[in-house]
Amino acid sequence: MTISTEQASFGRELFGFLAELKDNNDRDWFAANKERYEADVLEPALAFIEDFEPHLRQMSPHFRADARRVGGSLFRIYRDTRFSKDKTPYKTSAGIHFRHEQAKDVYAPGFYLHLAPGEVFAGGGIWHPDMQTVTKIREAIVADPDGWRAATADVDLGDGNALKRVPQGFDKDHPLADDIKRKDFAAFVRLTEADATGPDFLHHYARVCETFSPVMRFLCRAVGVPY
Question: pLDDT (tens digit, 9 = 90+) per residue, 5-56?
């Protein structure tokens, strides 16, 4: 596949639609503007997923760029409101997740792209793993602290979702106690709407994902899947 660097992957219309959706988050408005959603959000996102596939394959053969309209790499626009107090029916962001081939069977790392007005970022890692998986990652950090330091040296893991104390079974005085307390193990790079609508965003995003490769490789090894 020949990939052009001259045509933007996303237009300003994507962010314009999502901003309007935030102010008009109801089924009647969405139904009246569904053609805009498909033209400005859905189709560009699916084209991006397809175009990113060869870049993803160069990083690892074990992650999938799935450009299906339903059930693929693009998250559904519809919110699951069953257990939420917020009953607005639609997400006001576009999320793309390049999952590991074994993601249906185990919690595995993945690459992520988030597009929303004023909030654009790339991610790589594991978000909200189950207890078995998070324990494997913590044990891998303890077993190979130098490997974890090397894998995370050039990425930002943030300082958000974490336990208040080192979990039972781990040394509370361990030099990497702050990392052992993490609930999420994902690196992030903040981007801008100008980045996302620029003519070279596909390659820009690919370069960012490449910086996640060391931590992704460590996490894959920790949970027992190939990178």
Answer: 457 899 999 999 999 999 999 999 999 999 999 999 999 999 999 999 999 9
- Sequence-ordered list of residues with C-beta below 8 angstroms from that of 122, at least 6 positions apart, any chain: 111, 112, 113, 114, 188, 189, 191, 205, 208, 209, 212
Structure tokens at 43: 């189709």
Tell me the residue range of the domain where 90 lies. 12-223
Q: Distance (Å, rounded) from C-alpha 61 to C-alpha 158?
A: 28
Full strand arrangement of the beta sheet holding 185-191: 94-98, 110-116, 119-126, 185-191
Q: Which residues contact 208 (CB under 8 A, 6 or more apart)?
A: 122, 189, 191
Q: Does residue 109 fall inside a structural domain?
A: yes
43 lies in some domain: yes
**pTM to 2 decimal places:** 0.93
